[in-house]
Fold these 2 entries.
Entry 1:
Amino acid sequence: MATEEQRDKRFFITTPIYYVNDRPHIGHTYSTTAADAIARYHRMRGEDVLFLTGTDEHAQKVVRAAEAAGLDAQSFADRVVTSFVDMWDKMHVDYDCFIRTTEDEHKAVVAEVFRRLMASGDIYKDHYEGWYCVPCETYFTEDALNEGGLCPDCGREVERLTEEAYFFRASAYGNELVREIEAQPERIMPDSRRNEVLSFIRGGLQDTCVTRANQGWGVPVPGDEAHVIYVWFDALINYLTAAGWSLDDEKFAATWPPDVQLMGKDILTRFHGSLWLAMLTALELEFPAMLFAHGWWVTASGEKISKSRGNVVDPWAEVELLVEESGCTTDVAVDAVRYYMFREVTFGLDGSFSSEGLLGRFNADLANDLGNLLNRTLPLVERYAGGMIEQPGPGAGELSEEIERAVARAEHGFETLDLRGMLMGVWELLSAANKFVDERAPWDLYKQGKKVELAAVLYDVVDVTRVVALLIAPAMPSVAEEIWRQIGLDAMGIEMSWDGCEAGKLPPGAQVRRGRPIFPRIDLDRVRQRVAAEAAEESEAEEEETDMISYDDFMEIELRTGKVLDADPVEGTDKLLKLVVDAGEDEPRQVVAGLAQEFSPRELIGQTVVLVANLEPATIRGVQSQGMVLAAGTDKPLALIVPDRDVEPGERVR
Ligand code: MSP
């Protein structure tokens, strides 16, 4: 339970703020829904939570995406930000604060940070000469580029920058960062990531360029509007803005430092683990209690899912797939996608996302284990006890230990961000409860008239479903509510609170109300057959398509008229003629044609023919051929294709 000390201070959790040049994909959704689950857990414990997310809008790539869409950057950002707000809403993400870095309040905080660090000498003006990767929004020195002179992170081309710029004296803080991180290792988790950060910092922190030439997008440097503040420097400050730094001292004191800052592993080492911590040191602010870097969702072949690689998984398409295949409600499908993401991979490692895996887990874990316990238990309460939970007799409480174990594991999971372990603990409890029903066979107890035992068994099993609802509520809020409703606690006005996570707190008198199964089973064989049929149809369509060529394809074939100036047999064959053709170019061409058996050289000389003029040159029987003469005839040339009236050589044929 929350201690008094915890209640005094807010639980402050952040996700990265997302580049607004993009639509949210499964990778973004992962950070945000995981943070949401953790925030919900702390709210359920009665803590005052500040869960922050938002959008990072001052990137160069936003300007480029806006240009491509024919909009100015601000209008583009205004439009795209709704796709994030809508997606979080649809994915049951309940944040407390959404920051857009283009908001005036945030811009003022960024300018204030800059001013203070200028005043303390932590920011100084110099000259930048080096490379910049726009997709990664990262500066690189020449040495840091990969072998081909490309971005070491994404492998794309980098841009050369030579400009006057401001630098942040990160080099001054390397030793202090190492000391701090070593003193409190849990500040950067998991361990493997912390080691990467430490070795990066030990390699020598360089001063960081923190401005770009002002091209009309970004927060201007206070007092020097020829420059704007570097997008990462600007974006990291969003955490300070949300906490009220320089805006509201009381709020800041109650909020800072963050308890958990979540992010993907790609933005830990260079940014959160070093630049951000160095900025905080320079500002004399406390470090976050924990930076946690989760892994990536990758494709089956191990490639990171990202917009630039063109392999994104749209979380909403997965939700729709579940609804279509199982007939569950959209809210349940959303929770099932959340469940899949948390259960499938250990938080911190990479995982490969697959729709098949999602449907499989829906059946195995949700329909079978969780759904089954509900679907078999509630009808028993209806049948044997008129739907009413009775005050249990002395035999109740047989599953208390299992409940205690699952609660302890869930708490540990939420505290250490082991979301998978947290769910696995719950599923152990479910399987213990399913086994308990099998073993205690309430139907037999009923037949044998063992009323007291029967009431105790039913109580224990429904009590498990109650605790399970509480334990999964942070991860699957809608499913938990539906279970709460089905076991009648909603109608009794009982709130879902973590304090209820103890065996035996199911109030007698609750009236169960069985609903439709929450997780209707998916017919996986039917899905497989359908997928196979669709794939076959697609490949057939592709084949058909390859029989046809488009108008554009046709226009790529350059057909021209040409006058045959000379014709000679090719030595060593009785089929080929060597033609000299005037195709309206500076020099006549030499074309080898398989016409010798049907046409004599005399017949051809002076004839205007049609030539494929852009055919790749080839050497046929040792003779160079630049083009092809068109003739009709399937097996052998029966008739030459010739214009029906006089045309100059070199006319286009179409
Ligand atoms: N705007 C910066 C963050 C600034 S925070 C002060 C940014 N944005 S992002 O949109 O590119 O990425 C946002 C988050 O999504 C990052 O934590 C990133 O790791 C995460 N993911 C993006 N693709 C991902 C996967 N394929 N898998 C898991 N998470 C990944 O970086």
Entry 2:
Amino acid sequence: MNRIFSGVQPTGNLHLGNYLGAIRNWVRLQTEYDCLFCIVDMHAITVWQDPKELVRNTREVAAGMIASGVDASKHIIFNQSTVPAHAQLSWIFNCVARMGWLNRMTQFKEKAGKHKENASVGLYAYPNLMSADILAYKATHVPVGEDQKQHLELARDTAQKFNIDYGVEFFPLPEPLIFGAATRVMSLRDGTKKMSKSDESDYSRINMADDADAIALKIRKAKTDPHPMPDGVEALEGRPEASNLLGIYAALADQDKAAVMSRFAGRQFSEFKQELVDLAVSVLGPINGEMQRLMADPAYLDGILRSGAERADAIARPIIAEVYDIVGFLRP
Ligand code: AMP
Ligand code: TRP
């Protein structure tokens, strides 16, 4: 059976990269797969989170998923900490995955920066928790943005090592699903940096909670270069900001980059940006409105998360019981 698992961290500022790289793809996949969509609060605290903000951000991600079109009655939306399987399996994976594998993780290097000695142990072990998220449900497919590819490879390696070490064919090797015209949306201020929740400048990203005015302002202020739109995708090499805006347009319009390019070829970016504003507002406006409405009703969101947690737990519990038997944990 095919099962999807994916996650988003509730670290605030849910943005266009999360939408185009992940959440929108989930909405499209939900007709073909059984899906679990997880708000990974345990991952979030690998770097400091204010407790009150964490609660708020958890509900905001739930609202963002529902407003984008995830069907919470057919699929499961829940927050990670409500299901013990994640913590249980991640410990076992801490003992399966090798230091050498984790040492190669580029996300850790980026996030820990120069202060590696001062990073939390959780930040280092982060990918093992992510493998546990996926494999506690024996999920087969994982739709994510480009930046998570390396973590997915580690999850496959870990699943395989577990199977080999214990002489079982237990865990599937989960496949990444990375698709669309914007699998890596870049910062609006610097086309060589990924759009991220934690960038200090709010002008670097379009938030899913931004209203039409904020979206327009940010797109108008987005960095570009003085050249017009060329014809032919290769001509955008060395123009990261221009290339990023084109990718965003193509993804929002559901067209390929080449088609968008030939439409705008020879025109100035100021004109292109105006059309991008209209397009972005038409796609994100309704989602934003629905998010606001949902955020005003926390009891409703909590009800969805509670039901999701129960259903997720019912899937993971028997899988963890089997893992415990395989490992030799006595269940007296
Ligand atoms: P995160 O914000 O790190 O919790 O990411 C949640 C999901 O959004 C993951 O599937 C990421 O790969 C995806 N994602 C995050 N940032 C971007 C980005 N700038 N472009 C495309 N996808 C992204
Ligand atoms: N690490 C992912 C990110 O920051 C979030 C995540 C946690 C995830 N667990 C996951 C994604 C399991 C897919 C599957 O983007």
